Amino acid sequence: xxxxxxxxxxxxxxxxxxxxxxxxxxxxxxxxxxxxxxxxxxxxxxxxxxxxxxxxxxxxxxxxxxxxxxxxxxxxxxxxxxxxxxxxxxxxxxxxxxxxxxxxxxxxxxxxxxxxxxxxxxxxxxxxxxxxxxxxxxxxxxxxxxxxxxxxxxxxxxxxxxxxxxxxxxxxxxxxxxxxxxxxxxxxxxxxxxxxxxxxxxxxxxxxxxxxxxxxxxxxxxxxxxxxxxxxxxxxxxxxxxxxxxxxxxxxxxxxxxxxxxxxxxxxxxxxxxxxxxxxxxxxxxxxxxxxxxxxxxxxxxxxxxxxxxxxxxxxxxxxxxxxxxxxxxxxxxxxxxxxxxxxxxxxxxxxxxxxxxxxxxxxxxxxxxxxxxxxxxxxxxxxxx
Amino acid sequence: xxxxxxxxxxxxxxxxxxxxxxxxxxxxxxxxxxxxxxxxxxxxxxxxxxxxxxxxxxxxxxxxxxxxxxxxxxxxxxxxxxxxxxxxxxxxxxxxxxxxxxxxxxxxxxxxxxxxxxxxxxxxxxxxxxxxxxxxxxxxxxxxxxxxxxxxxxxxxxxxxxxxxxxxxxxxxxxxxxxxxxxxxxxxxxxxxxxxxxxxxxxxxxxxxxxxxxxxxxxxxxxxxxxxxxxxxxxxxxxxxxx
Lengths: 386, 243
Description:
The complex is a heterodimer. By secondary structure, chain A is α+β, with helices and mostly antiparallel strands. Chain A has helices at residues 3-12, 16-43, 45-49, 71-76, 108-114, 122-130, 139-145, 188-198, 219-229, 242-251, 254-285, 287-295, 300-336, 348-375, 378-383, and strands spanning 54-59, 67-68, 81-89, 103-106, 118-119, 134-138, 152-156, 163-174, 184-187, 205-206, 208-213, 237-241. Chain A folds into two domains: 3-45 and 254-383, no CATH class; 61-235, no CATH class. In chain A, the strands form two sheets. In chain A, strands 1, 3, 4, 5, 6, 7, 8, 9, 11 and 12 form a ten-stranded mixed beta sheet that branches. In chain A, strands 2-10 form a two-stranded antiparallel sheet. In chain A, α13 packs antiparallel against α14 (348-375). By secondary structure, chain B is of the alpha/beta class.
């Protein structure tokens, strides 16, 4: 081990309490930074996970307004459309309003065919298609409420009046960790037939059509063609890619996301200040040692590198611990956040940002102590009281 | 030991350090306070010179200038014929590493390094291999009687032992001269005598030129010459005949 490395390593361990506290602060800050970045990334996960050849057609006025289900045939007839399915946002309450989770009425067979990211076994699929009151629930939702196949659950309608009973046909998983498995899907025909009895005005309507286009190259052309079909009708449509829809949805919360990003960087700035103060204190205490080194022939650069090395080593250790802790903490947060996030997966770019932040904090924290130790005159340094 | 009176001026061949018209002042409260004014003096090869005088007399300033850790406002300081006042900072650092061994009042050892590692430290500036550095550091420690303390940290050593480690560090590169600023100022009498005895041996047996600042008359009595400074000027010079 070189003399420089030996001095750096031993200086790191010199004030164990101070180093431990600094490390603790660094770990908390870099961890918080990583988790907040992951939250923001996850918020955009729907955007990134959207299938480029899938279009969403909704009411041009607002996605809160429905479209006639009868549009399905006319959309299917548009050149370039391979398949069409449809869905309704249900918005029911399970026991208590605080138990929020997304529920959708879907045209079961076509919806599952067009959403390969929803993994259901053949048995569950058969069971779901067999029972008109059937519903499938995502793994995360099932784990949260202990739903099991065969359970009967009741939702109180908010958009659609009355109490609605569903039989759990099975549990679905996501194709990848980012697939949201906090949803409940039930059959649109059950909704529609019940509405025909309870609330006729709401029957035969859907919230969205999902359109599968034959080729990604034709997405723009097909979306324009669909909207052209319904132009000047009583319910004009707006067709956009799933990705555009998700971006529009996320944009509504953009101010919050920007705030989270700002907070994550503020956390880094705070720990930079703390670390800089620690290093300044350390260097001030060792001024006489640095002056001694310079007196016996070591260069100011060597002394500066001692401080830089110590600061970067502490920051790197803190960063490494924080990076190692981020995935389990994010996973725990995802569990605590219930159905808010499908899964908080720490991306490679977040890990890179964390590592970079740690190194930058380590390097910047050393700048002023390095300058001082390197430039202080030997005579003044030797007079310094440690 | 007997005091022989005022010293004779050294001849040109004997001179190791030649100070000529050296002036130095410090800025205090917006004013320049002169410490040394046109100071001229020669220090011989293999000399053991003690600098004495009241606080503020300029003895530590003189020592710092001779050691090359401070620079004069005017004048020249030639060491073995080389004017160190003209050396750029980086060259001066190299010059110190090769020619000066430092002994400080408070030892100034690196607290995180063992005695052996502290002594080895200046050798890392040389091109020596690790094994050779270790051998030399061990030899230096044995010269100061600390062969059995090589793995001890400074905090595990007494003040006298720490100062002996500092002396070993000062001599390990075999420098031309040793500069010592109050080397016994923090030691009890017995430890001080041990340290001064080692310095005297280094001067007599190894021919090291030593310049030592001290307030202690008993410490100065180990030197060959004693220079008294008063307000930045040579007050008187005493040559001693040591037994």
